[in-house]
Amino acid sequence: MTRIQANLVLLLAAAIWGGGFVAQSTAMEVMAPFWFVSVRFMVATFVILPFALAETSRATRPLTRPERASFTGVGIALLGGATVQQAGLLTTTVTNASFLTGLYVVLVPVISLALFRRAPHWIVWPAALTALGGIYLLSGGDLAALTGGDLLVMICALFWSMQIILAGHAVRATGRPLTLCAWQFAVTALGSAVIAAVTEPFHVEALRQAYLEILYAGTLASGLAFVLQVVGQRHTPAPQAAIFLSSEALFGALFGALLLGESLPVSGYAGCALLFAAVVAVELVPLWARRRTIAARLAEGTP
After folding, report:
1. pTM over 0.90
2. Which of 38, 46, 111, 143 is surrounded by the most beta carbons within 10 Å?
């Protein structure tokens, strides 16, 4: 898979996650948030498990203990991101949450540099800030007074950053994207079920009323989209992947307008333009730089 193909795969994952905002929004009308997270990832686990087992049967060696530990670490990061975000949404606004969650586009290159000493291409830094500005405008460009929920959502952005970084590292080290997905889904489903059992009542009727949202979130927004994420990250560095994945805010606004009748202010369209510019810059600037380098070497007669 080429870098361009991998980036298109990441964009598709972001588009599916954008549609997941609609499913999650409507499901919360009848279902408790932590139970929704648990059931969603339980469905995702069963959807991916047969493919993960087939991948395991074709593997030339079993996973080592450190590799299994790294898969569990990805699952814990996903669990933290999914549950802390839900807890934050109880005491903050959707506008604040959508902007603060998008902090991961800046956190990913910073954490990657700190943990792995991997400096991203220079275009990632201005593109990350551009994408963050786009998310801010897309969320309405008007943050209310910060609350305890805002702090939780900022912690959530840290968890999402770690999930993106650790998933990319684990899948490149093992070449087992489907196994990684099944593993992180199972960890998230089990962990959120424990939290839900302690904090929320469970109603079978809620499952019946929200079954369409559960199926979408479990099969597509979780099962398919996270597989696309880890497959794409085999060929795209985490800082660049974060830029492409951040376009989920753009797709969320699009699906909200199409399916829920929501409308964007002028600032929202400006935010869409900034996000699109960030994605295009991250894709084209390194490509142009490589072509210029090749052309210069050919002109000098350097092989």
Report:
1. no
2. 38
